[in-house]
Design a protein that fits this description.
Chains A, B: It holds the Pfam family WHD_NrtR. Two copies of one chain form a homodimer. Chain A is α+β, with helices and mostly antiparallel strands. Chain A has two domains: 137 residues, Nucleoside Triphosphate Pyrophosphohydrolase, CATH 3.90.79.10; 71 residues, Winged helix-like DNA-binding domain superfamily/Winged helix DNA-binding domain (Arc Repressor Mutant, subunit A, Orthogonal Bundle), CATH 1.10.10. Chain A is built from six helices and ten strands. In chain A, strands 1, 2, 3, 4, 5, 6 and 7 form a seven-stranded mixed β-sheet that branches. In chain A, strand 1 and strand 2 form a beta hairpin. Chain A is elongated, with a radius of gyration of 20 Å. At the A-B interface, strand 1, helix 1 and strand 5 of A face strand 1, helix 1, strand 5 and strand 6 of B. Strand 1 of chain A pairs antiparallel with strand 1 of chain B, so a sheet runs across the interface. Chain A binds a DNA duplex through helix 5.
Chain lengths: 229, 229
DNA sequence: ATTTATTAATGTAGATTTTACACTTACATA
DNA sequence: TATGTAAGTGTAAAATCTACATTAATAAAT
């Protein structure tokens, strides 16, 4: 009977984390080499099992930390994957989570100690189980999110140039954007502070640095703005 | 250890179905009265447990059919809910699914036999567990979906008037729409067939009936159109 | 001191899309 | 044949989006 708890089947519930990162080389994804069977040695998303006394969000955070040392990463739930044989060992349903982080802010050392590695999004190895599908879906969501939130700022250093911001969006959307139109659209959101300071790395002229204005952003967010790039 | 299947905790996995329907009285939701403890007699989403040899999509379909007799309803996965005590009997994670159906096409008799009932979306009873939250999130998704798919057609009779279509969208978005602008936006999609036939119920003049042109719609869908109402 | 090379910064006109808005038409009923 | 009711229809102004090229600032080289 359906209305009976006792006769219902229990299953393993896993969480898999899709961590996107950005640095000067573009958009990347964080993967680990499995250190246990099955598929030991193959590349995989960062994953683990939900504990009985833990909510899914907490499991995702714990698992990410366990395998990478990363802390305080806000992840968003994406989708539950439930194909019968997706994990050959035992019936396992997996819930995917994703996040976007700034690679440079997140101690590369720690990640190294844990055997996690960044791969360019367009040059990543084949993954175990249904992890490739999970990543594809996460990329779609990431693209969608750029249109409703200025999500990219989390991926940049605190002070950044317009060019960096442009290149970030180009990497996420994988298309070229018109520089002038991009700048005026971003400016029209009024969520950036233009500093007096310039970044002199990139050119002789130097380019102005900006910071993200969190207060103004929160304000905007209430109005459900849309950003068409 | 995380890398051990045998030591991982197993949990119950449930599915809850949020079924939206539309008829001349507006947008409704399908609920049932629990016939077992806990919360027996209270109103609830249509839900049940995943079986070991079943994928989530199939479980949602089976459970919906078991409690309502409804068949061939395409549902879409929404979100996994995992609060520790969301179900007081036993640790249960629930994955929500939602669908939109045409109330008149789906034999009210069958639903009656199964004690399921339609409630106006704005006048539904309080629900058990976290089901209210599930419904709220489903409504948000429903609104979003109107902007990227002409999703509403599934809710109307095969032949419908522009007014019916307009009222459907107004119910989903819960805002008034300009009649002329609505019609021209819908027409510009070129996914309707205007029939020679008129519906004489609504007025002396009568209003033209339309059908949904599935082929043209499939064509459009490839181009990821957006419908800004 | 002057030239050169490099990237940053900036504005606009035309095209497209969106919005706001009111009168006429067709028909059944009285 | 007059009346009442909802259906059907078009446009001008505003807003947004797109495509596009020149000048400015500076460091390095001469």
């Amino acid at each position: 009977m359906l209305n009976s708890y006792s006769s219902a089947d229990k299953v393993l519930l896993a969480v898999d984390c899709i961590i996107f990162g950005f640095d000067n080389d573009g958009l990347k994804i964080l993967l680990i080499q499995r250190d246990f069977e099955p598929e030991k040695g193959k590349w995989s998303l960062i994953g683990g099992f939900l504990k009985r006394d833990e909510v899914l969000d907490a499991a995702a955070t714990r698992i990410l930390n366990t395998y990478t040392g990363l802390n305080d990463i806000y992840m968003e739930q994406l989708h539950a994957y439930s194909e019968i044989d997706r994990d050959p060992v035992e019936r396992t349903i997996s819930v995917s989570y994703f996040a976007l982080i700034n690679i440079e802010n997140h101690n590369a050392e720690l990640i190294k100690n844990y055997h996690a590695e960044w791969f360019p999004i367009n040059d990543a190895p084949n993954l175990i189980f249904d992890h490739n599908e999970m990543v594809e879906n996460a990329i779609k969501r990431l693209r969608y999110k750029t249109s409703i939130k200025p999500i990219g700022f989390e991926l940049l250093p605190e002070k950044f140039t317009m060019r960096q911001l442009l290149e970030l969006y180009e990497a996420i959307l994988s298309k070229e954007l018109d520089k002038r139109n991009f700048i005026s659209k971003i400016n029209s959101l009024e969520i950036l502070n233009k500093l007096d300071e310039k970044d002199m790395q990139s050119s002789r002229k130097g380019s102005y640095l900006y910071t993200f204005n969190k207060e103004k952003y929160e304000e905007k967010l209430l109005n459900n703005f849309v950003l068409n790039l």
